[in-house]
Specification:
This protein is of the alpha/beta class. The protein has helices at about 25-40, 55-65, 80-90, 105-110, 115-135, 150-160; strands at about 10, 45, 70-75, 95-100, 135-140, 165. The chain has a six-stranded parallel β-sheet with strand order 1-2-3-4-5-6. The relative contact order is 0.12.
């Protein structure tokens, strides 16, 4: 019989560290990661290597020292970002790459002038690339609540088929509470 287990994933070092007026220095980020590990957090999303200055170095320092939880790095569904995440996690005992792809209809019109087949292909290619670099891959359709249900299901299926161990279906922009903005 399978035992159910709650997995605690913390994004403080990714989301919480990017406040405009309160960036955390690398030493503080490492101290927070140590405390999260002591609390028993299963996955620490340590940052976005292709994002703000200092994230790459902070992630690498956390990955080298904090060994019990999985250490995750965020990457857009682009080869260069996935490779940067893998470099940041080189010394991690349990590395995880979290690949995200803008999929909501509003985001797609502005950011990704791609057809449905192209989104599925990009999901497959980038999750497979991340999976070749690490054993643990997470996939998030950015703006999932405004992604057409059929497309969302197709993207999640593609990600799982390519080796994603975790799929993250979140209301990225907080739009699901606004009926006129929701796909559901």
């Amino acid at each position: 019989m399978a035992t159910e287990r709650l997995i605690v994933l913390d994004t403080t070092l990714r989301d919480g560290c990017h406040c405009l007026d309160a960036p955390l220095p690398p030493g503080d980020r490492l101290a927070i990661a140590r405390e999260l590990a002591l609390l028993g957090v299963d996955v620490i999303e340590a940052g976005y290597p292709a994002g703000p200055a200092g994230d790459m170095e902070s992630i690498a320092a956390i990955a080298a020292e904090v060994t019990k939880p999985s250490i995750a790095a965020l990457a857009a569904a682009r080869p260069a970002e996935i490779d940067a995440a893998a470099r940041a996690l080189e010394k991690a005992a349990r590395p995880r790459i979290h690949v995200f792809l803008p999929t909501g209809s509003a985001r797609r019109e502005r950011n990704l002038q791609e057809a449905r087949a192209a989104l599925v292909r990009q999901t497959r290619e980038t999750v497979a690339r991340a999976r070749r670099l690490v054993d643990d891959v997470e996939f998030s359709p950015f703006d999932a609540t405004r992604t057409e249900e059929g497309l969302l299901a197709e993207l999640l299926t593609a990600a799982i088929e390519e080796g994603a161990k975790t799929v993250n279906i979140s209301d990225t922009l907080g739009c699901s509470a606004c009926p006129r903005n929701s796909a559901f």
